[in-house]
Amino acid sequence: MKRQRGQAFILVLILLAVGALMITPVLNYLSTALRSQRISEKALARQYIADSAVEDALWRLLYESGFAESMTPENPVVEYSINISGTEVPVTVTKFTGLGADTLSLDADYVVPAGHLLEFRITVSDDDHGHLAYDTVAYDSWLQIPTTSGTLNYYLHNNPTPPTGDTDAQANLHMDEVQPTATNLYNYDQNYDSNVGRRIEESEGGPDGLELKEYQNWQTEPYGSDIHLQGTVIVNLLVAPDGFNYDNEGEFTVYLRDYDPASGTYTEIANATYQVDENQWVQPWHSTAPEGKYEIHASAGGTQVDCVVALGFGYIRVLSFTNGGG
Question: Which residues pair with 132 in a beta bridge?
């Protein structure tokens, strides 16, 4: 064997054959990796473009005059397109019907004297009883009150606030400009029932001469100077019908009053009665806010982005953000 020639050549041929078998899949792999990188870069670019379109819709909801107001219960959808980096992106903004599709408001033109309190009171006049949710991030019931010197934004609180557990029903709860921070909605009237929130029984007449189970009220601190309320007061309440059923109706009345602690007397400023029909319920808690919740949908080259937001008090809170598509 040592005297024979060509054995190294045989080994070279074997290696060459093995290499020939391997070179094609290796090149295919490299080619696939390069194509995959290009595809990933394009998908990432489409993702950025779709995200930018959603940001545009968020900006329009928050700052563009008339944009949010253009979506009504009868026509809750706005469709438009925006060109971003040479890509035309269709955008759809939808206002949830039945949730934030109704406005509860009162017209006020009244001067609350220094030393007096402003009171907000609720009674139920139909469907046996109703429920209220408030003092949490998800259920931030509030009043937006225009005055001659600016807008007052009052949130409704429980006692203690932020809530840390179930409580009995309490009169003269507090309202102020501090936004709720609690995440759990507790039972605010465990002496009346076991449901979360505050139950109010149906009553006749009012707002005075009622038992605590027939009303709930909130008051500010005494004002240090005269406050002139002037304009339309917007009220956002999160309400649920008797039994939390979708097929129930309900009616409640809200009162805005001036209270003089020195004399113990009330002066009514305004009131409004609100009827909730059975076909309005889309979830157990129904909001009377004019702003409500919106869904934003943007699509760029097959990449879709969906965003659900809540709009109120001049700010936007993102509730969910979902990416989809290729």
Answer: 198, 239
Compute CA distances 104 → 8, 73, 250, whole Å: 94, 15, 14
Same domain, 148 and 281: yes
For residue 303, the domain's CATH number is 3.30.1300
In tens, the pLDDT along 115-129 reads 999 999 999 987 778
How far apart are the C-alpha atoms of 164 and 158, rounded to whole Å? Answer: 10
Write out the DSSP string of 49-76.
HHHHHHHHHHHHHHHSTTTGGG--SSS-
Beta-sheet pairing, 173-176 with 286-287: unpaired
Residue 182 falls inside a structural domain? yes
Element (H, E) at 47: helix 7-63
Q: For residues 286 and 132, is the Cβ–Cβ distance under 8 A?
A: no
Residue 326 DSSP SS3: coil
Residues 272, 196, single domain; the answer is yes
Look-up: residue for tokens 């009995």? 168
pTM metric for this prediction? 0.63
Helices (H), 64-123: none
Asked whether the beta carbons of 158 and 135 are under 8 A apart, the reply is yes
Whether residues 172 and 275 share a domain: the answer is yes
User: Tens digit of pLDDT for each residue in 4-52?
Assistant: 566 676 676 676 776 666 777 766 665 665 565 555 667 778 888 999 9
The answer for residues whose C-beta is within 8 angstroms of residue 65's C-beta and 6 or more apart is none
| Residue 162 pLDDT > 50 | yes
Q: Please tell me the distance from the alpha carbon of residue 267 to that of residue 220, in angstroms, as a whole number.
A: 15
From CA 179, how far away is CA 217, in angstroms rounded?
A: 18
Which residues pair with residue 83 across a beta bridge? 88
